[in-house]
Amino acid sequence: MKKKKILIGAVVHAVLILLAVIQVLPICLVIINSFKTHREIMANPLKMPSSLNLENYAAAWKYGKFANGFKNSLLLCICTILIVLFCSTIAAYALSGKRMKHSGIVIIYFMMSMTVPTQMFLFPLYAAYAKLHLIGNIVALSFILGATNMPLAVFLMRTFFMKVPSELVEAAQMDGASVGQIIRKVMMPIVSPGMITVSILVGLSSWNEFMLSSTFLQGERNFTAVLSFLALKGMETTDMGLMMAGASILVIPIILIFISLQRYFVDGMVGGAVKG
């Protein structure tokens, strides 16, 4: 029996290592090739670079206008995260426990909304935004991204609110605390891991978003980092070294941020999965 457990554990670890290599290898190849010239990449993309050539990074940053792209992406991510955290926290509090009549219908509505593709709303949203002169407005786009991320955020936050002991809420109510004070001073310290998890998920989704950004953010001055990279591809289609450097500039900050927040993300996902 012990040998069987060891064998199963070895197979599981081997599969996990293989999957990790499959995920990490393309990123490593992009970073390695970002230091090479176009000729070196075409000769052998798997070969290590002869020297750490930073000219590709300087050229990609300049021609891709990543400084403006990063600024717009950060603004979009921050606005979207704040919108989702505010709305999902209030909605999750109302849907947890027995605070709201017919909450099951609302939960089913959120579940159904997760299955509806965003492409169905592009034309009416674009028409409405064009009429309101909001095309190219990054803050206005963050409301659309907030709406698309809201169902998952509400479900995650609801599981955390359901874990809060009802005695704490009742004690706060007996002391005369309002709903806002209960959420702010009693609930939020307990559900903070869920808020961090939601922030990471929404931030990554907003940073990598392409379809809505390319539709509603017209003009180079409104480009996000992803759109800046695609614009670079359109200008320099033949220089693979430049393209690899641009991809590295786009990906490396996200990898570093995720690694630094990985512990909070895992804790939040595990904590939110305890009770549904």
Fill in the keyword field for this structure.
single chain, mainly alpha, 13 helices
Your description of this structure?
The chain is built from 13 helices and no strands. With 276 residues, it is an all-alpha fold. Helix 4 runs parallel beside helix 7 (138-162), helix 8 (166-174) crosses helix 9 (179-208) and helix 11 (225-235) runs antiparallel to helix 12. Helix content is 76%, strand content 0%. The protein has helices spanning 2-33, 38-43, 55-63, 66-95, 103-113, 122-131, 138-162, 166-174, 179-208, 211-216, 225-235, 240-260, 262-272.
Write the layout of secondary structure elements.
Elements: H1 2-33, H2 38-43, H3 55-63, H4 66-95, H5 103-113, H6 122-131, H7 138-162, H8 166-174, H9 179-208, H10 211-216, H11 225-235, H12 240-260, H13 262-272
The description of the largest β-sheet is: none
Cα radius of gyration in angstroms: 23 Å
Find the count of extended strands (DSSP E, 2+ residues): 0
Task: Detail the poorly predicted runs.
Answer: none
Q: Structural class, from helix and strand content?
A: mainly alpha
Strand residue percentage: under 5%
Briefly summarize what is shown:
Helices cover 76% and strands 0% of the residues. The protein is mainly α.
